[in-house]
């Protein structure tokens, strides 16, 4: 194992070289499709095979990656997200 210290700019370049998963591309597209001043709403059904908290976390990570000042709220099986 080798420890090395690099600049933040180098670290960002390394991160960008890694391929994105199809899942994260999908969640990023939700943010990109969101009209200004609107709230996105995702309802997670039991047949979807995914927990609502997982969807909320993915939406949050996608918003952070895109550098958005966003808000995400979960009410039961419904996830609401918008840009502030």
Structural commentary:
The chain is of the alpha+beta class and 84 residues long. It has one domain (8-83). The chain has 3 helices and 3 strands, in the order H-H-E-H-E-E. It has a 3-stranded antiparallel beta sheet, covered by helices on one side. The mean pLDDT is 90.
Quick tags:
single chain, 84 residues, alpha+beta, three-stranded antiparallel sheet, 3 helices, globular
Largest sheet: 3 strands, antiparallel
Number of domains: 1
Give the helix/strand class.
alpha+beta
Helical segment tally? 3
What's the total number of strands? 3
Q: What would you call the shape?
A: globular
The residue fraction in helices comes out at 40-55%
H/E element sequence: HHEHEE
Overall pLDDT: 90
Which consecutive residue ranges, at least 5 long each, have pLDDT under 50?
none
Computed CA radius of gyration, to the nearest angstrom: 16 Å
SSE topology sketch:
Blueprint: H1 8-17, H2 22-33, E1 40-43, H3 52-65, E2 70-75, E3 78-83
Antiparallel strand pairs: 1-3, 2-3
Task: Give the structure's gist in a few sentences.
The protein is of the alpha+beta class and 84 residues long. It has 3 helices and 3 strands.
């Amino acid at each position: 194992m080798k420890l090395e210290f690099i600049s933040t700019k180098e670290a960002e370049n390394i991160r960008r070289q890694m391929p994105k998963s199809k899942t994260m591309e999908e969640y990023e597209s939700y943010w990109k499709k969101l009209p200004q001043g609107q709230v996105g709403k995702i309802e997670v059904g039991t047949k979807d095979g995914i927990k609502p908290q997982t969807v909320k976390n993915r939406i949050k990570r996608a918003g952070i990656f895109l550098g958005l000042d966003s808000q995400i709220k979960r009410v039961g099986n419904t996830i609401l997200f918008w840009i502030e």
